[in-house]
Design goal:
By secondary structure, this protein is mainly alpha-helical. The chain contains 8 helices and no strands. The two termini are about 30 Å apart.
Length: about 170
């Protein structure tokens, strides 16, 4: 289910914190170790509250791989922030993302969106995603990986609020 994948993907701040001592020499104090433990235990408890035999499938593995990659990317941005502008990693994320997205769309068999309204929504989504990525990269260069991850968790709240707003607009505009 999507919920399980999203929950696992949101372990990225934990992985960013775990990578940070090795890649950017940031210290993990006892409080942060405790929070990391709580995050892992909470995730396990939510996903498998009563299952002694964890039902792990390829979706779980891919979601954890995505969280690891996101945590590593945040930490690497911090590591190379002095040598690179925030625009440099953004360019590479965007270029690689475009290639992967076009390839995935081609393999999916789904038609390309057409029509002015669809293209306007896609354009607005792309602009918002670009601004979000630039903001995240800049934040990662200014504060610790753990702090970026913690602030990044607000995505859940804002995502829920925006989802509710879109739902209301959808109902009103019919």
């Amino acid at each position: 289910p999507v919920f399980e994948a999203v929950l696992l993907i949101y372990l990225y701040p934990v992985f960013a914190a775990l990578f940070s001592p090795f890649l950017v020499n940031e210290r993990i104090g006892p409080k942060l170790w405790g929070l990391i433990g709580v995050a892992f235990c909470g995730t396990i408890f939510i996903l498998w509250p009563q299952d002694a035999a964890w039902n792990v499938n390829s979706g779980h593995v891919l979601a954890i791989a995505a969280a690891l990659a996101h945590g590593l990317a945040l930490t690497l941005v911090r590591r190379y922030r002095r040598e690179n502008s925030p625009v440099t990693p953004f360019f590479y994320f965007s270029a690689l993302g475009a290639v992967v997205s076009v390839g995935a769309l081609g393999l999916s068999g789904q038609p390309m969106p057409t029509g002015g309204a669809s293209l306007a929504v896609l354009t607005a989504t792309a602009i918002a995603a670009c601004l979000a990525q630039l903001s995240m990269i800049k934040a990662a260069s200014c504060i610790t990986s753990a702090e970026v991850g913690i602030i990044g968790m607000s995505e859940i709240v804002f995502g829920g609020l925006l989802s509710a707003l879109y739902g209301v607009l959808f109902v009103l505009l019919g």
